# Entry
Amino acid sequence: MAIYLHNISPTKGSQKDRKRVGRGGKRGTYSGRGLKGQKSRSGVSGLKRRGMKQLIERSHKLRGFKSIHAKPEIISLADLDKNFKASDKVTPQILVKKKLVDTARNGVKILSNGKIKSKITVSGCSISATAKTAIESAGGKVIELKKKTTDKSDKKAKEDNKKTKK
# Structure
C-alpha cells in the first residue's frame, strides 16, 4: 500500500489528549476543579471568579475616545500649487489619480497651508474659508458642495405646505 497524506496518522500514544475540565468521570470525582467553593460549581463566569474590581484595575486608563465618524482626507494649498497648472480642474477623483490623497471615500478637504498662485477650479471638495479666499484671490473658482439642510424652519414650511394641500 502506498503512503499518502490522507491515509497516514500518528502512532498510538504519541499524542496526549488535552485535559477536559469539569465534565465528570475520568479525571476523578472533582474533575480537576478542586474541592468545594464557588470556582468548583457550574455556571460561574470568569468575571465572577476574578472580581470586577481587579479587571478595572488591570484595564488601560486612556483619556479621550476615537470618533466613529469618518474624517476627510486633507490636502494643503501648497500641494495643489505644486501639482496643478493654471486653468486645471481639481476634484477628489483627480487627487486620487495623482496620488495626492489615498482615498476620496470620506471626501477631501482643502486647508490653507501654504500659498497658491495658479488659477485652478475646485469642485466636489470641502474647503476652509481661508483656502477659499486664497484660491479666489489667485483668480481661481470654487464650486462648493451642497450641504444638507436640517433647519427647523424648512421642516415647518414643508409641513405647512402638506397641511394646506389637504
Observations:
- Residues 152-165 form the longest helix (14 residues).
- The chain is about 30% helix and 10% strand.
- Strands lie at 73-76, 88-90, 108-111, 120-123, 126-127, 141-143.
- The CA atoms of residues 94 and 100 lie 9 Å apart.
